[in-house]
Amino acid sequence: MSRRPSILLMVKAVALLLTTMVLDCPSHLRADDGDTWNKPPNGFVALFNGTDLSGWFGHATEDPRLLWAMSKDKLAAHQEKTLDDIHQHWSVDRGELVNDGHGLYLTTLKDYADFELLLEYKAVPAADSGIYLRGVPQVQIWDRAEGSGGLWNNSGGAPGKEPLKKMDKPMGQWNALRILMIGERVSVWLNDAKVVDHARMENYYDRKIPVFKTGPIQLQTHGGEIRWRNVFIREIEPEEANRILQAREDAGFFSLFNGVDLAGWQGAVDAYTVQHGTILCKEGAGGQLFAEDEYGDFAFRFEFKLPPGGNNGVGVRAPLTGDPAWEGFEIQILDNTAEKYANLKPNQFHGSVYGAVPAKRGFLRAIGQWNYQEIRFLGSHITVELNGYTILDKDLKEVDQSRLERRAKGFDRTTGHIGFCGHGDVVQLRNIRIKNMPGAFLEK
User: Could you tell me which of 109, 103, 123, 102 has the C-alpha nearest to residue 48?
Assistant: First the structure.
């Protein structure tokens, strides 16, 4: 008779013990969670496999161009050598990636262009860490009043430097980060709240140029233990990147192209054709295809695809007659990689205000891929954004016109037509939209 209560007590004790073990057990080890911890969601791949440090090497706050300048063999040897330091300071504990607060930063062997990054981290009080994007610092992680998630290495007062709100959980709890990077544009969500909204990430190593087109992901060490898990990445292809960029601040934009014909356009309409929702400049043809109305201050968005050696342009604030490059302004559309253009002047390459202001190069997509571009003209200030990178940002009042080989009349114009300047190459155009800025629109 005395055994039965003892057996029941033993069963209850075992049950309680098992329950306690489950509650204390890391979630990725629980039997009831579907064994999903450190396993990526659909479309993502795991940067950390939960077992070892495969796919990583060590690098610190150093310009990644130093790595890219190495030969393939020298780079591989360098990466292998850094693992001695990595294994001293980084470890794997029950599926969690752990750093002791010292040593080189864990750096992906692979470089990434546009991406969506998911991860979770847990830090100790007074911690200071971060995530380098394409080898550039950084999305900030720290125990400070400003909160984590900001692009702390942006210039003082620049958008994104400080998070929009503080969303950090108490030290010792897991935080979830989502980072979306298109071109130089970065959005950050911390614990499901947006803390950085499509801000330009400055190039810490050279603020005169945009961040690099590709580069590694780095997890920073900065004096305090930090743990990481569920580190997943999804590479974003050009088509999706373009949709994201087109959708930004969409209010007020309207289409100039109906996708069917050239209704609403004038000028060299016979030099262009419409196929599958795309305007094509006919091979060997050219001339100016202008929208019917005039615009002064505006934001103009479109996508274009270049053939090898392709050449076109965007005429802005131009009259209907004459060469827009000199009667107004022309913003170049050009295959910068073509050998026949190797000796052009800097202000003749893609995105430049032709003959006047040079644009930064290196941000066109591969030939045959669609590029996204936005041109903003506000008063005398013009900016050109290509695939999420600002390649030109200039107040034309600052241009020394006496140094130009030829002065465009666009310097004197405040309004005019907008359109495309064909030069005989089959350049394709689509998703052509414009937004009137205050007081800029003139009825025809």
Answer: 109
**Residue 321 region, left (φ>0) first, then alpha (ψ -120 to 50), else beta?**
beta
Cα dist from 64 to 75, 80, 287, whole Å: 12, 16, 44
Q: Within a 10 A sphere around the Cβ of 301, how many other Cβ atoms?
A: 23
Is residue 253 exposed (0-12), middle (13-18) or buried (19+ Cβ within 10 Å)? middle
Here the tokens at position 247 are 């959708």
Task: Identify whether residues 231 and 251 lie together within a single domain.
Answer: no
Assign 143 to helix, strand or coil.
coil
CB 348 within 8 A of CB 325: no
Residue 24 burial class via C-beta count within 10 angstroms: exposed 0-12, middle 13-18, buried 19 and up = exposed
**What gap in Å lies between CA 46 and CA 41, rounded to an integer?**
9
Give me the number of domains the chain comprises: 2
Write the DSSP assignment of 224-278 as a string of letters. S-EEEEEEEEEEPPHHHHHHHHHHTT-TT-EES--SSS-TTEEESGGGEEEETTE
Residue span of the structural domain in which 165 resides: 26-236
Give the tokens for residue 313. Answer: 């342009």
pTM of the model: 0.89
Domain annotation covers residue 19: no
Q: What phi, psi does 347 have (nearest 5°)?
A: -85, 20
User: What does 26-78 look like in DSSP terms, one character per residue?
Assistant: -GGG-GGGTT-TT-PPTT-EESS-SSS-TTEEEE-SS-THHHHTS-HHHHHHH
Q: What is the CATH number of the domain that holds 339?
A: 2.60.120.560
pLDDT tens digits along 29-47:
333 333 557 899 999 999 9
Summarize pLDDT for 3-27 with one digit per residue, the tens. 444 444 443 444 433 333 333 333 3
133-179 tens-digit pLDDT: 999 999 999 999 999 999 999 999 999 999 999 999 999 999 999 99
The CA angle 334-340-344, to the nearest 5 degrees, is 65
